[in-house]
Design goal:
The chain is 75% helix and 2% strand. The protein is an all-alpha fold and 197 residues long. The chain has a two-stranded antiparallel ribbon with strand order 1-2. The longest helix is centred in the first third of the chain and has 35 residues, at 40-74. Keywords: Membrane, Transmembrane, Transmembrane helix.
Length: 197
């Protein structure tokens, strides 16, 4: 399973243009860096609710992404059939996988959708781990006993850790949203485009 996931990730990076990568990486990176500049104590007060919200949004995005993949596979549209066989008009417009296999327009859309699902599932995993780590770092109010993590390290969690968690999760969320948006635009143009033009 690890090899399949890595293949999808590598294929997404291989089929993406420099402009697409600049947008899907650059925008989330800028926002994430800005989050790092926020006072950590401010972030720490609402991080639990924020992670809950991220988990909800990511779960909805996974459902939407899987639904769009299902629609693509089950549609009998003439344009989808043409997209399965359309590899680009010029050598510059053709896209290739990490293994240098030509990719059709239809496959490009699928790769983007599958990649978005992988990023969203990773975001959910990071969110759950973050939530568990934050719960482990909090003092148990009933017994006044510090938990395992605090006991091991015998110090409070630095505020920058909260910023790093939020920053990373925001990066993953915005990145997956932008990749999914790109795939949705491709689907839109797929439904209106004639590949014989």
């Amino acid at each position: 399973m690890k090899d399949e996931v890595l293949e999808i990730i590598f294929n997404y990076w291989a089929i993406s243009t420099k402009k697409e990568l600049a947008i899907t990486i650059g925008i989330p990176l800028i926002i994430s860096v800005l989050i790092l500049l926020i006072d950590g104590s401010t972030v720490s007060t609402g991080i639990g609710e924020f992670i809950n919200t991220i988990l909800t949004i990511a779960a909805l995005l996974v459902a939407f992404s899987v639904a769009s993949i299902t629609v693509l596979f089950t549609s009998s549209s003439k344009n989808i059939e043409e997209a399965r066989n359309y590899y680009g008009d010029t050598e510059e417009s053709k896209r290739y996988t990490a293994r240098k296999s030509a990719v059709s327009f239809f496959q490009t859309i699928l790769i983007k959708n599958f990649y978005a699902v992988i990023v969203q599932i990773f975001l959910i995993a990071v969110g759950i781990i973050s939530k568990l780590a934050l719960l482990a770092c909090q003092k148990n109010q009933e017994t006044q006993i510090l938990d395992f993590v605090s006991y091991l390290f015998s110090f409070e969690v630095p505020n920058i850790c909260y910023n790093l968690i939020v920053s990373f999760e925001v990066f993953l969320l915005i990145h997956s949203l932008l990749v999914l948006t790109s795939a949705i635009f491709d689907i839109y143009f797929l439904m209106w485009r004639s590949f014989e033009e």
